[in-house]
Amino acid sequence: MRPSVRGVRVLLAVCLSLSWARALAQTPPGDDTTARARRLYEEANRHYDLREYDEAIEACRAGYELMPLPEFLFNIAQAYRLKGDCVEALSFYRNYLRASPAARNRAKVEAFIAEMQRCVPAPVPVVSPPTTPQAPAPSTRMPPVRVVAPRESPAAEGAPHGRSKRIFGLLVAGAGVAVLGTGLYYGLDARAKSDEVATFFERGGMWTARYQALESDGQSAATRAKILGVAGGAALVGGALLYALGWREGSEAPALAAAPLGGGAWVSWCSAF
After folding, report:
1. Which of 51, 62, 115, 183 could form a cystine bridge with 228, CB 3.0-4.6 A?
2. Residue 75 lies inside a defined structural domain of this protein
3. What does the pLDDT look like over 208-220, one tens digit per residue?
4. Domains of the chain: total
C-alpha cells in the first residue's frame, strides 16, 4: 500500500530538518544559497500536496544543484515511486544510500529498494531476424538419456498415514497403561483398607466412626479401581488395534532377530513408527 501524500510530506520535513541545520552551519555569512534551497524545498512540498510529482522532482533537482544534500535524492526517489516510475525510484534510492550510507532511515530505504526491484518490468527479449535454415551438421554426441524417477508404491504412499496411526496407537496404549496403573493403586489401597477393617473386627474391635470412614474409603477405592481398570484396558486394546492398522497401511513389519550366546541368546526387535 502506498503512503498518503500527507505522510510523505511529514517524512520529507523530518528528513530535511537536520540537513538545513547542518547546511546553515557550513554556509558562509551573507550567502543566500541555503535560503534559495529552502524555498525550492517548500515549492517541492507544495507540489507534493497537489500530487504534481514531476514539478516536485524538478524543484528537488534544482535544490540539489544548489546544495547537494542526500535528502534531496531521497525526496526525488519518493516522488518517482509515488508516480509509479519504479526504474527511476530504484536508481535514486540507491544514489541516496551511496551519498548517505549511515542514514537513519536506511532500513526503510532498503525496503523501498526491494519493492522497486519487484515492480521493475522485465527486459523485452530481442527477436533476431529470420535466417535461412541450414542443414544441421552431424553430431558426434550421444543423445541425452532421460532419467525417470521410480514411482513410489502404494504402500510407500500410505506410509505417512500408517505412521500417524501407529504413533497415536502408542500414545493411546501408553495412556491405557497409565490408567491401569492408577486403577491398580486404588485396588491395592482398597484391599489394604478392607484388610485393616477385617483384622480390627476379628480382634473384637468396636464399630467406631474412624473404621466406618475407613470402610467407606475402601469401597470408594474399589469402585475407582474397577472403573479405571475397564477404561485402561479399553485404551490399551484400542491403542493396540490402531498400531496394528498402522502396520497394514504401508509400514514394514517389525524385524525380529535372534543369535545364540553362551548361556543364553541375544534377541533384537526393530520397527519403524
Report:
1. 183
2. yes
3. 777 778 788 988 9
4. 2
Decide: pTM greater than 0.85. no
Tell whether the model's pLDDT for residue 183 goes beyond 80: yes
Domain shared by 26 and 113, yes or no: yes
Ramachandran angles phi, psi of 208, nearest 5°? -105, 170
- CA distance readout (Å), 145 to 54, 141, 142, 152, 244: 58, 12, 9, 21, 43
User: Which of 120, 123, 98 minimizes the C-alpha distance to 110?
Assistant: 98
Cβ-based neighbour number of residue 50 at 10 Å: 10
* C-alpha cell of residue 60: 528537488
How far apart CA 94 and CA 197 sit, in angstroms, is: 91
User: Which CATH number does the domain housing residue 92 bear?
Assistant: 1.25.40.10
Nearest to 243 by CA among 153, 173, 151, 141: 173
> 67 with 9, same domain?
yes
Q: State the residue range of the domain holding 94.
A: 5-119
Say how far apart CA 152 and CA 158 lie, in whole Å.
10
Question: pLDDT tens digits, residue range 54-89?
Answer: 999 999 999 999 999 998 999 999 999 999 999 999
According to the 3-state scheme, what is the secondary structure of 33-79? HHHHHHHHHHHHHHHHHCCCHHHHHHHHHHHHHHCCCHHHHHHHHHH
Burial class (CB in 10 A: 0-12, 13-18, 19+), 161: middle
